[in-house]
Amino acid sequence: MSTLRRGARRPPAAPTQPPPVTIPPEAILAESGLIRSMLARCGVPARDRDDVLQECLIGAVVAVPEGRYRPQPGLHPRRILQRWLVGIAVRQAAKYHEKSYRRHEVAVPDPRAYVTGRVPSPHGEVEARALLELLWLVEPRERRVLILVGEGEQVSEVARNLGLPVGTAFSRLRRGRKRLAAVLKRRRRFR
């Protein structure tokens, strides 16, 4: 074995797991009352409690031969079994609450059949956002005039609001339109 240099730490020891233990299915079935009460505490309604209880029992009975029941030695065996089954019950209750029919989702072949009126296309919104991003490629001074005119203001009002001469506002609008047209032309070319 090599010696460690000064100040070096030893690697942590690998945690040892206890060996798997085999228990009869009857011992698991005897704790079904505990599992049922745990499912009630977890919010599983009475109408579905038997189904979830069955899933818990089947899961526990299958897990034992697979070696997934590994109790710590030295503790009371029934107490350990109950804790293990409570853990299974809590996980199964969580799965129950995540199911789509519990979330009141209804799967239908065509959900658009239930919508009344005109529904806007999500593609139009995505394209509009992409076009607005292209507007950021125009100079800020020209962009400001373009946006205000696009909102419906007159060029003379825009000039007054920005503190510009009317001729300057018109020239910025013309240059902004020209640059935006060039950006759109480049975009179409690359599509």
Q: Which word captures the global form?
A: elongated
Number of helices: 8
Largest sheet: none
Q: Please report which band the strand proportion falls in: under 5%, 5-15%, 15-25%, 25-35%, 35-45% or over 45%.
A: under 5%
Given helix and strand content, the structural type is: mainly alpha
The radius of gyration is 35 Å
SSE layout:
Blueprint: H1 25-30, H2 32-41, H3 46-63, H4 77-98, H5 122-135, H6 140-150, H7 155-162, H8 166-190
Helix pairs in contact: 2-3, 2-4, 3-4, 6-8, 7-8
Provide key terms for this protein.
single chain, 191 residues, mainly alpha, 8 helices, 60% helix, elongated
What's the short version?
This protein is mainly α. 60% of the residues lie in helices and 0% in strands. The chain is elongated and about 90 Å long.
Explain the overall architecture.
This protein is an all-alpha fold. Helices cover 60% and strands 0% of the residues. It is built from 8 helices and no strands. It has helices spanning 25-30, 32-41, 46-63, 77-98, 122-135, 140-150, 155-162, 166-190. The two termini are 65 Å apart. The model has no long low-confidence stretch (mean pLDDT 86).
